[in-house]
Amino acid sequence: GAVVSQHPSRVICKSGTSVKIECRSLDFQATTMFWYRQFPKQSLMLMATSNEGSKATYEQGVEKDKFLINHASLTLSTLTVTSAHPEDSSFYICSASSERLAGVTDTQYFGPGTRLTVL
Amino acid sequence: QKEVEQNSGPLSVPEGAIASLNCTYSDRVSQSFFWYRQYSGKSPELIMSIYSNGDKEDGRFTAQLNKASQYVSLLIRDSQPSDSATYLCAPNFGNEKLTFGTGTRLTIIP
């Protein structure tokens, strides 16, 4: 159980275009989803936290107008990188947690990640 | 100011030996602690969670927590080459978010 998927796994786009990444919890309802970014040889950096039906909470320094997050249902959250530039190239990873999952409220289960390359 | 400290390594351990990974965290109210394993180019995978002081065992893995010392560790017994990865310590400081350490790169030498 506790499987999280992401799509696409890899995307290459031109500078100035927008890219949408989907994160789905396949076998549980995720009350909270998280979006991380990881640059090579660095640790995970939390970008934002989203709860179903409410606006995402962004970490300091993360531009909410550039990284649009939608959490429309308990199994789906999307991250849209708008007007992407080469410096946005990174490994984007989502995770999900559930209040109802095995009685543990804060365990995060990660998706496989999306590698974004902006040319 | 770092809130989670891990030795970045690399830590090299012979196959079959015990690998010991350590993590210290800053003085905050920490309720739960997680260890994740991350293979190169892949996303993190949950290994263990621990909530109470003491030891918690799961197969070849043992997590040890000492809240008074602000210290959590992960022991891997009978280390295998497939255990070679980066291990991330992630405390929850009480706000549903995890704070990740920079990770310890572990290499198991056959």
**Quaternary assembly:** heterodimer
Report the mean per-residue pLDDT of chain B as an integer. Answer: 91
**Anisotropy-based shape of chain B:** globular
Shape of chain A: globular
Determine the strand fraction of chain A and express it as a percent band.
over 45%
Low-confidence parts of chain A, pLDDT < 50 over ≥5 residues?
A: none
Number of helical segments of chain B?
0
Provide the structure class of chain B.
Answer: mainly beta
The major sheet of chain B is characterized as: 5 strands, antiparallel
Describe the structure.
The complex is a heterodimer of chains A (119) and B (110). Chain A contains no helices and eleven strands. Chain A is an all-beta fold and 119 residues long. In chain A, the strands form two sheets. In chain A, strands 2, 4, 5, 6, 9, 10 and 11 form a seven-stranded mixed β-sheet that branches. The mean pLDDT of chain A is 91. Chain B is globular. Chain B has no helices and ten strands. Chain B has 110 residues and is mainly β. The model of chain B has no long low-confidence stretch (mean pLDDT 91). In chain B, strands 1-3-8-7-6 form a five-stranded antiparallel β-sheet, with no helix packed on it. Chain A binds chain B through residues 32, 34, 42-44, 46, 49, 93, 97, 104-113, and chain B through 31-32, 34, 36, 42-46, 49, 88, 92, 96-98, 100-103.
